[in-house]
């Protein structure tokens, strides 16, 4: 049997601009070509010889600058020919734009769903997993990084803020670029940027440099979600889109599980790091960042073997490449199903003719290499901005506004509670710890050797005469209005320990981390500090609470049932019911948070909320790629994802501000946002049986 890959391919343009592919046994050299010359008008052809024998005659009005009547006639005829040609092209383009979606859907049904889609599924899933991992990295490394690099509380909040801002900008930029440069090319750029700058951040010793590198990494990975969903959608037929896009969403959950598990296993092990001198230190939290690069690296390697989206190529008049890729998809799937004899029978692909590529090439034929590059980039920027502005067209304006409201409401409540849950657990731990504090008032200790740790204590108006504190840990201890006279401190490790309004006389501190910031309004007389441990020092037993890793792990695992249910029913009951039902059910779950009086209750309600709300995320991501045409799909999804990041930034500040003050306001805000989003979602158009436009 003949292999379709080895048959010669001839391409002819039929009347109307269609590209027809035929296969024959003849031998032809070269690549299939196309002709696009308009038929010559009969009048124009006759004019070419009209009056040829009168060329040598002098026209008497020539010296007066008056055009010859024949020249006027020829110009008018040329204008009529050009007008007719443009009218034919406009009618042809309108007809082809109407036919392309139906024809492409028929081609994808003929290609089937099989091995090719599953290979692409796992490659893009790894890219989505890399985005999920990146969302957890900062939260896990911050407790260690703030000690390792002496980060203040103000700077600590700046790190999380800038990473989200970078991801928001990345979603906007890369979403628009993937509609002009291609899905595959942009995703390769996104993953490469994330890998390079995340790798460099592992070795950054200064906080400013670390902040810059994480910002660049966030700018890269921020564009992955719009590209991944747009890319995968264009390889799926209509009856498979909802289910398989929902399965793809599970990889974000896998990213959270991977980050939580590796952080749990790596960060608390301080001995896994190493140091080169005193300037370069590679602690275990840096090793954790390095391990988090594996999903992005695996996705980048797999993406090298994947083709560009044929729908994107057709939209950009790259007919030959699209046809070859569609044939590759067809042959890969049917050979895997045991039917290699099935031949790709598509011979006619209708595509809209665009002028963008021609414009770029025409403008780039002259000038230096830099000038040609500049023209291409400026033209592409103009096209992207035009694409963004076209989203405000009347037919897209209403559905765009509804989607913006739903995305914002869901992101505001989800990310706001995502900040509130772990912070609430930490606050409960702090309250429980504070309730067990031991208070010593006006104690007098003389000639005593403290060889045991001091933990969670307050000493007020005490007197310590000729005492020795050696080889001990002082944790969460405060000395207030106390006197230290002829005392000796040696090899002390302190955490959250302070001296306030104390008097120190003839006291020696040797090899301790008790330094200036530990003494507030203290009076020192003949007090000596020898070999002090300046700077910040890591204490992994203190800074890495296993409960936080467990909370993140359980929260990520809790979305598994919701992912499975939404995938199985997305195409059966529709996107709108999934989104609206999930949002309204999630709003009901928020009231259970009023019953969270213990750490266990907070963890339980967190898992329930995540498990219910994930269905809304899946449905929203599916409907967002289905509502917009292919030429604007990445741009629109990028804008929506950027709004999601903006809502997350706003929510993190608002919800964190009420920790330890009240639970009612955060819960009410989350409830109101979810109800609003759920009601608006019910007004969205159903896309379950919609062909990609």
Automatic annotation (TrEMBL):
Compartment list: Cytoplasmic vesicle, Secretory vesicle, Synaptic vesicle membrane
Keyword Repeat set for record: no
UniProt feature, compositional bias: Acidic residues: 39-59
PROSITE patterns in the record: MFS (PS50850)
Its membrane topology: Multi-pass membrane protein
Pfam families reported for this sequence: LD_SV2, MFS_1, Sugar_tr
InterPro entries xrefs: LD_SV2, MFS, MFS_dom, MFS_sugar_transport-like, MFS_trans_sf, SV2
Transmembrane segments: 118-145, 157-174, 186-206, 212-232, 244-267, 287-306, 400-421, 546-569, 576-597, 603-623, 635-658, 664-684
Domain named Major facilitator superfamily (MFS) profile: residues: 120-688
A GO term from the CC aspect: synaptic vesicle membrane
GO biological process: chemical synaptic transmission; neurotransmitter transport
GO terms, molecular function: transmembrane transporter activity
Keywords on record: Cytoplasmic vesicle, Glycoprotein, Membrane, Neurotransmitter transport, Phosphoprotein, Synapse, Transmembrane, Transmembrane helix, Transport
Region listing for Disordered, in residue ranges: 1-66
Entries under NCBIfam families matching the protein: synapt_SV2
PANTHER family named among the record's database cross-references: SYNAPTIC VESICLE GLYCOPROTEIN 2, SYNAPTIC VESICLE GLYCOPROTEIN 2B
Family: Belongs to the major facilitator superfamily.
Name of this chain's protein: Synaptic vesicle glycoprotein 2Ba
Native source organism of the sequence: Amphilophus citrinellus
